[in-house]
Amino acid sequence: MMKTKIKTAGHAFLILPAVLACVQLAGCARSGKTEETAAVDAFDNLISVGFSQLGSESVWRSANTVSFQETFTRENGYFLLYENARQKQENQIKAIRSFISQRVDYIVFSPVTETGWDTVLKEAREAGIPVITSDRQVVLDRDSGDGLVSAWVGGDMAAEGYKAAQWLRENTKEDEKLNIVVLTGTEGSSAALGRSEGFHSISDTMENWNILEEKCGDFTLAKGQEIMEYYLDTYPDINVLVSQNDDMTFGAIEAMRSRDIEPGTDIIIISFDAVREALEMVRDGFINVDVECSPLLGPYVDELIRKMENGGQIEQSNPVDELVFTADNVKEYLESRTY
Ligand code: GYE
Questions:
Q1: Which of 96, 180, 203, 207 could form a disulfide with 240 if both were Cys (CB 3.0 to 4.6 A apart)?
Q2: How deeply is 205 buried, as exposed, middle or buried, from its count of CB atoms within 10 A (0-12, 13-18, 19+)?
Q3: Where are the domains positioned within the chain?
């Protein structure tokens, strides 16, 4: 297992000059310690984690950010450096480089797209900083990518896409002709690619399923609405919408309602994520099925880091359990949905 710990007084100073100044003033006055040892006392026991979040495009994403912020606290023994890349890979690369130069103990990131990470991850390896990906995954050069990512934790996107198609197959008649439109997520992201792959593994075998078009709505409500309007203007006979996240679904439902189309009745709606507002729509019959993807990944990453800290073995691939919600089972889960 690749892991070199770098935890020095200098390292703490790099991270927090402003806060350290306060600690120095308060602590030194009381104890008579030198400025430097007071700072080390205050921060040396914390594990520093640089977390590069990919953006804030969805309700899911906000819940994911909160999960990290609530997990990686001082009380839990962490110092969290958080950067939001606003859906741009170049911003994530910049954030990772800044974590490297600040010599954090761990880098965690949710990669906006699958490819294009080899160079920066090699820089992290050279600096001896372990990297964990959470939520989305990377695809690295086959020849040199081994060991650049210590572990991944998140939802199995291909399995989610498969479950969506499986539900449709089980809940429609075999000889029924279905005209399907798809709203896909961010291009080149493992979330969109995986969900598409899983869905296609069944839909490609279904003679009566006709996929009219698949367009990218970038996981946002606004784009979901815009593309659904285009679909409704273009295709008069849509039976099914597959929308790769709840935010795009919310936008698509707006588009349907503005044309007096009843979501969930006139058009079957299949969504992903299962945030609270969407589950309410499942309960009310506007979304027919919502495939869960959990954003509450902070505690899983915490567990991986603690194992690494204790020199334990960790799994490379850590998919989390996820459910499928329909009107039949949604009520028992709604109460406890926090996001
Ligand atoms: O479905 C979407 C978010 O990567 C699983 O990204 C995540 C997806 C999630 O913007 O809402």
A1: 180
A2: exposed
A3: 3-154+296-314, 157-293
CATH 3.30.450.20 matches 3-154+296-314: no
Measured distance CA(175)–CA(209) in Å, rounded:
9
Measured from the Cα of 55, ligand 1's closest atom is: 10
C-alpha of residue 191 to centroid of ligand 1, in Å: 7
Radius of gyration for the alpha carbons in the chain, expressed in angstroms and rounded: 23
Three-state SS at 106? strand
Q: Which amino acid is at 44?
A: D
pTM of this prediction exceeds 0.85: yes
User: Could you read off the pLDDT of 122-167 as tens digits, one per residue?
Assistant: 999 999 999 999 999 999 998 888 899 999 999 999 999 999 999 9
Please report the atom of ligand 1 found closest to the CA of residue 273.
Answer: 1
> Which has the closest alpha carbon to 263: 245, 292, 285, 244?
285
Residue 194 near residue 157, CB atoms below 8 Å: yes
How far does the centroid of ligand 1 lie from the alpha carbon of residue 278, in Å? 14
Same fold yes or no, 3-154+296-314 and 157-293? yes
Q: How confident is the model at residue 35 (pLDDT cuts 50, 70, 90)?
A: low
In the chain the beta strands, taken as DSSP E runs, fall at 47-53, 78-84, 106-109, 131-134, 151-154, 178-184, 209-216, 240-243, 268-273, 289-292, 317-319, 324-325
Please give the CATH number for the structural domain made up of 157-293: 3.40.50.2300
Pocket test for ligand 1, best of 52, 59, 61 (most atoms within 8 A of CB): 61
Distance 19 CA to ligand 1 centre (A): 34
In the DSSP assignment, the letter for residue 91 is: H
Give, in order, the Cα–Cα distances in Å from 57 to each of 22, 63, 87, 244, 309.
Answer: 36, 11, 8, 13, 33
Residue nearest to atom 5 of ligand 1 (CA): 191
